[in-house]
Amino acid sequence: MDRGALILLTMLICGDTLIPLQVGHAATIMLPDGRGFLPPPPVIKSHAQEADIQAFESTRALKNSNRWKLAHNDADLNPEHMIGDFSCAAGFKLLPSELPTLVAVLNALEKPLEQRITEEKENWRRQRPFVGTSQPVCTPDADKLASSFSYPSGHTTWGWLVASILSSAMPERSSQIMQRGRIFGESRIVCGVHWKSDVQAGYMNGSAMFAAIQGQPWFAEKMHLIRKELQNARVKATPAESATCALEHEASQEAF
């Protein structure tokens, strides 16, 4: 059996799939399947579900606060927008125009990741916390979100994966970058569109995604270029916006 066939067989046995993507040349990405390793969402009347309800209800009071505005900002999953979201954590303004390889990798990962998370959500079919209530959410697309499922959080998975990539590329800023990844996930609780346990599962999901791609040849090659681009960008960098950094620092002191 050749190496490619062996990898395919192994991934099928593990419940994973092979998803082709373009990252400058033909490559294959292997993403783990959360249906095989994530815990199920909390059951009704469990302590975990009660904690979910408490987190949802208590954060409704944050409407129109600075934290609410940050959650609204974090709802935008456009890869170029997300790169900018990590500017304070990186210590300088991250400009997509100076990081073409990072932009290309995130764009390439976007659809395969969305496909995988959709499969996971369809498996558990958990309703979002605001469904059936009149409680506010921080995004204007509540009607669209109401028809999609909640567990695990796709935004959190994506945010944690991006944080992990940047942290690997900038190990000297790892703590700050991963903290921003945590805040990004917590924004979904503040926004009211995810339960707390959805977000916790998203962190685990994102970690698994990063662990899976980290050892794949296409990614190792791209990471080398990403590190170089970040090093070059830092030389001529401008500071991140102080007001945004203060807002993120404030958010880092909160717990949900």
TrEMBL record:
Keyword Membrane attached: no
Single GO MF annotation: acid phosphatase activity
Catalytic reaction annotation: a phosphate monoester + H2O = an alcohol + phosphate
EC number(s) stated in the UniProt entry for this protein: 3.1.3.2
EC class: hydrolase
Gene Ontology CC: outer membrane-bounded periplasmic space
Keywords assigned by UniProt, alphabetized: Hydrolase
CDD domains: PAP2_acid_phosphatase
Hydrolase as UniProt keyword: yes
Residue stretches making up the Phosphatidic acid phosphatase type 2/haloperoxidase domain: 103-214
Family, as annotated: Belongs to the class A bacterial acid phosphatase family.
Protein name (Swiss-Prot/TrEMBL): Acid phosphatase
Upper taxonomic lineage: Bacteria, Pseudomonadati, Pseudomonadota, Alphaproteobacteria, Acetobacterales
